[in-house]
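Bump. Still looking for Peptidoglycan glycosyltransferase structure tokens.
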Amino acid sequence: MKARLPVTSAILTNRFERRAFVLGAMQGGVGLLLATRLGYLAVAQNEKYQAASESNRVNLTLIPPRRGWVIDRFGKALAANRADFRVDLIPDRIEDPDKTMQTLAGLLDLPPDRVRDIRDKLDKARGFQPVEVASSLDWDKFAAVSVRLPELPGVIPQRGYSRFYPTGAAVGHLVGYVGAASAEDYEKERNPLLITPGFKIGKDGLEKHFETRLRGVPGARRVEATASGRIVRDLGTREDVPGKPIQLTINAGLQDYAARRIGLESGSVVVMDCETGDILAMASMPSFDPNSFSDGIGRVEWKMLSEDDHVPLRNKILRGLYPPGSTVKPMVALSFLEAGLDPNATVQCNGGLRVGNRVFHCWQRRGHGTVDMAKGIYQSCDVYFYHFAQQIGMDKIAAMARRLGLGQEFPMPYPGQSYGTVPDPAWKMRKYKKEWALYDTVNATIGQGYMLVNPLQQAVMASRIASGREVMPRLLLDRNAPPVKPMGFSQQHLDYIHAAMSEVVNGRGTAGRARIPVDNVLLAGKTGTAQVVGLNIANGKSGAWKYRDHGHFICFAPFDKPKFACAVVIEHGGGSSAAYPIARDVMTYIFAPDKAMAVLEEFEKQWGGNVQQRMSARYDVYAAKYGGTAAKPAPDDEDLTERVEEGRKPDQDPASVQTDAAAPAPEPEAPPQVQVPTPAPSPTPAGGQ
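Sorry for the wait, here they are.
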């Protein structure tokens, strides 16, 4: 066994010095690394961390821009902005959703159905998507939320501007609405503005089509804040740049009047300047209130709209398709004249006409006696058109229909149109692989069978017949637009058609109650009643609403110097008598607004108030019945547009094509047997331009 050497002080000193050296070297290395890292951070990364530090101290908040206004031809607002106090929620910042909602419900007096709507939206929202709690708040409620912010993380009260539609539902289909940007919208643009609380984009109609123009440029606010978020001072604000306005050809007063005058019916009114093509009114009713859609529609209101058999979500002007009935007879007569038929040629109407092995009846089963072209129009004699349409042929009639705008899709700033059907032999062969038959011509010549049109096409047809010009419907105002070119019709032919259409209203025709109560202004028009189902199911006048005939009326005024044209369609109104009183009052508004308003006010007393009042009363009924228990939640902003679009899809073909050519009666009247007087020059319209 080897003996151990004694441990001396020298050995201990040596060991200590070695260990001290190693430890010191390690400490020196660590110190060098720390110094190097600190130097790197202080010098090379100085700019990055200075910016981060500044970001912690300074908060930058985007200020949503004010949207450009939508104004009418006189500068009156159809869609504007108003100062607004609002409260939003940021889902991923909320710590206790139940407690937060309970507190907000108490502070803002939120009804149970509204609380349920907000909870539904919170469940569906992405973390970054703001959810609107309330808007248009008064100062007291806004302040009550603001002072409780420390205990309400995720709650964002703010002052700004919100979209406002002064006439509400009257412009729902015309202007559209705005809503919060969806996740898909954000993925497309990656624009932080889209997730800024209070910012909304166009979701439908003109608001969507002109989004880029209307949006504007956001402003920004820089504030110095503590680590807890308390604002120390305001460092500066960059004002937003409002979006550019768009000016429409619409006459706001006429638009509102037309929407209100439709009343309790389901229908549409289009008024055009037949010299320029400017659309002065384009009302589809019932409609939705774009203010509600923009604020975030609730489950009760959604239930009210989605269960309405009058389909308030459908733009009936562009998406509604209807057999035009006898409103096509002036067009058919013009095709006869252009084909060389003598307007004095007559046919004997005994109440029907045999075509092949079938008898096709006239609406007047007693017959009209001897009928020439003018009488065929003003008495709406079906037999006259049955007889001469077989001589002229469907190809020439269909060509004239297309020339006057039927079956045409117009360049309008909306996502789609349903342009209907102008049938002819080639069309039937393509679609059904069947030969054209004489009864097809008989049906088409009185606006039944396969023929389908939308109300805008009928207004264009009336405008082109009135002016003889190839007017195209125009919604954006252009005071320097070039004159509309003539269509090449014989003025003698047009004058003949005009005189016959004047007789419809002012003489021996079927719409004597359509006369407008304005001195020296005569209205020319044409009634139309379109069958929906066969007479074996219903008589078209009474019974179930969905089985009643559609009512049509096209017109223009003054008849001797046409300036304004109008088309009215009333769904299931029971016939033309539901349509032409509306057209009469709407056209009266152009020349004498006070007289027209007096008539409307009397009607609204019977109807239970104006559009907004009736919608509010109906909502109250639904809220009382369903309250917070409405079964289905309202669609969120992301799929509301899809639901609206789905609700607008029309039937591309009639449910059952009427082939018996038994045109319903056009509500004939028996005014005195007088000739139409030659009118004096008409006055300058009070509200038309």
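The CA atoms of residues 52 and 175 lie 44 Å apart.

Edit: fixed formatting.
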